[in-house]
Amino acid sequence: MTDLKELTSVLRGSVLFDVQMHEYTSMQVGGACVCVFTPADTADITAFLEWARRNEERYFVMGSGTNLIVRDKGVRSPIIRIKDTLDSLQVEQEDASGVVMTAGAGIPLAQLVKYCTEHGLSGMEPLAGIPGTLGGALAMNAGTAGGTVSDIVETVTFIERSGRTRTLNRKAMGFGYRTCRELSSSSIVVSAVVRLRKSDAKRVSSSVAAVLEEKTRTQPLNYPSSGSIFKNPPKVKAWKLLDEAGMRGVRVRGAKYSELHTNFIVNTGQARAEDVLTLIDAGIEKVREKTKIKLELEVVIIGEP
Ligand SMILES: Cc1cc2nc3c(=O)[nH]c(=O)nc-3n(C[C@H](O)[C@H](O)[C@H](O)COP(=O)(O)OP(=O)(O)OC[C@H]3O[C@@H](n4cnc5c(N)ncnc54)[C@H](O)[C@@H]3O)c2cc1C
Predict the structure, then answer these.
(1) Residues 178, 264 within the same domain
(2) pLDDT tens digit string along 101-131?
(3) Which domain-ending residue is among 81, 102, 125?
(4) Does residue 267's CB lie within 6 angstroms of at least one atom of ligand 1?
(5) Residues 224 and 25 sit within 8 Å (Cβ to Cβ)
(6) Does residue 212 sit in the same domain as residue 94?
(7) How far is the CA of 133 from the centre of ligand 1 (A)?
(8) What is the residue-wise DSSP string for 186-245?
(9) Bridge partners, residue 16, by sequence
(10) Which domain holds residue 277?
(11) Is the pLDDT assigned to residue 263 strictly greater than 80?
């Protein structure tokens, strides 16, 4: 059994033990994680990876936990959390057409959207209202029908489990619908270079306002959730399939399929991960029975089964 306490002497960042994950995820469910490590900088990530390799220890990477459901029995491997750290933003190049910036993986998307709005930079508008960090957005290729984070990315820098640091351009990253091939294993994003177009601050601001207004109207933002539970199958919306399968408003204890947006499961208070997972299984089953379509998860589920 690895001595996790050793991490406090190996690392300079914050190392917390027995962390209640419902406090660290937007769904607000789940048991404890043995250890959550927030690195001080990239050298600290390298030190953590050295330790993980030496001890043959698995680990999980997280950002803000807005797309993450942790099971009730908790997580037995350490979590490396890239939030409230690696959150710098630096303009590298600016000309008449646009701006190229390097952003840390821990920067909240909302902060990037705010910066772009204030400086009249266009490109981030479709990402307005998506919670979470830039690192999480890259791993998920987060976005909306209007565009995804991969649209503005020039390069991504990440550290592999082996300790090797790599910088790949957008094409080589293998972005797909809510996935990124190069980030599907244990690699940790540390930063990305993004390119934004010069525009008019008023125009950017009104596009962002329209996106936010639409989300407020169509999503149950007053309850804890993980956003969309399922990916949209080709040519059809997951919420519609769930709706037609009768899942709207279906509840298991404190969790229910939102009446406002059937692809959201909300925590109405005191929900356990088990309730959310039961609803997920029921949704998959009902949609499969009715349409033969197998819904695929968009959310990431971790922890002891
Ligand atoms: C109310 C609400 C609305 C939402 N709306 C949208 C939406 O419109 N569109 C959309 O796409 N998503 C949406 N989401 C889902 C979620 O916000 C996004 O997927 C977000 O990008 C996740 O970022 P995060 O930092 O919270 O990542 P987490 O949830 O912490 O992690 C998600 C995944 O990313 C990986 N990851 C996180 N950080 C890193 C890193 N630094 N390096 C490598 N891997 C990493 C994790 O391992 C995990 O696999 C919504 C969620 C909520 C709660």
Answers:
(1) no
(2) 999 999 999 999 999 999 999 999 999 999 9
(3) 81
(4) no
(5) no
(6) yes
(7) 7
(8) S-EEEEEEEEEEE--HHHHHHHHHHHHHHHHHHS-TTS-EEEESBPPPTTS-HHHHHHHT
(9) 36
(10) 222-302
(11) yes
For the Cβ of 78 lying below 6 angstroms from any atom of ligand 1, the answer is no
CATH number of the domain encompassing residue 271: 3.90.78.10
Task: Output the pLDDT for position 184.
Answer: 85
Q: What is the full DSSP assignment across 265-279?
A: EEE-SS--HHHHHHH
Residue in 178, 195, 226, 272 annotated catalytic: 178
Give the model confidence (pLDDT) of 274-286 as tens digits: 999 999 999 999 9
* 181 catalytic residue (yes or no): no
Cα angle 142-143-146, degrees, rounded to a multiple of 5: 165
Confidence (pLDDT) at 2: 81
- Tell me, yes or no, if 187 is annotated catalytic: no
Q: What is the pTM of this model?
A: 0.98
Q: Show which of 42, 62, 81 is a domain's final residue.
A: 81
Examine the domain organization and report whether 59 and 98 are in the same domain. Answer: no
pLDDT at residue number 246: 98
Whether residue 147 sits in one domain with residue 254: no
Indicate if 178 belongs to the active site.
yes
pLDDT of residue 185: 84
The number of the ligand 1 atom at minimal distance from the alpha carbon of 219 is 1
Please, is 280 exposed, middle or buried when counting C-beta atoms within 10 Å of its C-beta (0-12, 13-18, 19+)?
Answer: buried
- From the CB of 179, is ligand 1 less than 6 Å away? no
Q: Decide whether any atom of ligand 1 lies within 6 Å of the 67 Cβ.
A: yes
pLDDT bracket for residue 272 (50, 70, 90): very high
